[in-house]
Write a structure and sequence with these properties.
- This is DNA mismatch repair protein MutT.
- Pfam families: NUDIX, WHD_NrtR.
- By secondary structure, the chain is α+β, with helices and mostly antiparallel strands.
- It folds into two domains: 134 residues, Nucleoside Triphosphate Pyrophosphohydrolase (Alpha-Beta Complex), CATH 3.90.79; 73 residues, Arc Repressor Mutant, subunit A, CATH 1.10.10.
- The chain is 25% helix and 28% strand.
- The protein has five helices and nine strands.
Length: 228
């Protein structure tokens, strides 16, 4: 194999990290503390090291932001426009993660001036083409949550049907019929009644449910189709 100066040697990872809290869907952004994009907001990202796989690089980026493990993380898409990075050809592999904000303690990395959650419908201007990456990933998430039960990764282990409804409304950015939504999910038999109710609430305490992944996998083997 011959090598030349035309070979691309710059490969990076960028992560779109989604969180959900109190009827709102959020995305995690970092403010660059050094370099040509000093002071600009961006998606958490990093160069891929020679001694790690791309999945290891994505998990390293996540671990630099929080100590929480077992986070839903999936490779999304590769972005490689010629002018996406100044003075150098850089290709980035985008991942997206779904996290429970309540368990997600933020940590700014060594090259970051700040790290914050932003509502997905009110994000600031971002460095490079990160706004394009984010918007593309959000559109993908809208489609995927309607065909796979990945949205449960954004909720606490025990949740109410109202919380589940509010999650889907936040992701899809539209109001849903409460009664039909409730019937549809209960009919799928994916939710387990924990026999518990909300605590310390001013309104009537609602029943708490949990998602049973084992039941879902067994239903998949039988040809079950998840559709919301």
């Amino acid at each position: 194999m011959q090598y030349s100066d035309d070979i691309i040697d710059a490969l990076s990872i960028d992560c779109v990290i989604f969180g959900f809290k109190e009827t709102q869907l959020y995305v995690l952004l970092v403010k660059h503390g050094i370099g040509p994009t000093l002071g600009q907001w961006a998606l958490p990202g990093s160069w891929i090291r020679y001694n790690e796989s791309i999945d290891e690089a994505a998990n390293r980026i996540l671990s630099s932001q929080t100590a929480v493990g077992n986070i839903y993380l999936e490779q999304f898409k590769t972005f490689g426009d010629l002018e996406r990075f100044p003075a150098r050809r850089v290709i980035t592999i985008a991942y997206y993660a779904l996290v429970n904000i309540e368990n997600f303690e933020l940590h700014a990395g060594p090259t970051e001036a700040d790290v914050q959650w932003f509502k997905v419908w009110d994000v600031p201007k971002m460095a490079f083409d990160h706004k394009t990456i984010f918007e593309s990933c959000l559109s993908f998430l809208k489609h995927k949550v309607q065909h796979e039960p990945i949205g449960f990764n954004l909720l606490p282990p025990k949740f109410t049907l109202l919380q589940l409804l509010e999650l889907y409304e936040a992701i899809l950015n539209q109001k849903l019929d409460k009664s039909n939504f409730r019937k549809k999910f209960l009919k799928m038999n994916l939710l387990v009644d924990t026999k518990e109710r909300q605590q310390d609430v001013s309104h009537r305490a609602a029943t708490l449910y949990r998602f049973d992944e084992n039941i879902y996998n067994k239903l998949l083997d039988k040809g079950f189709i998840f559709e919301v």
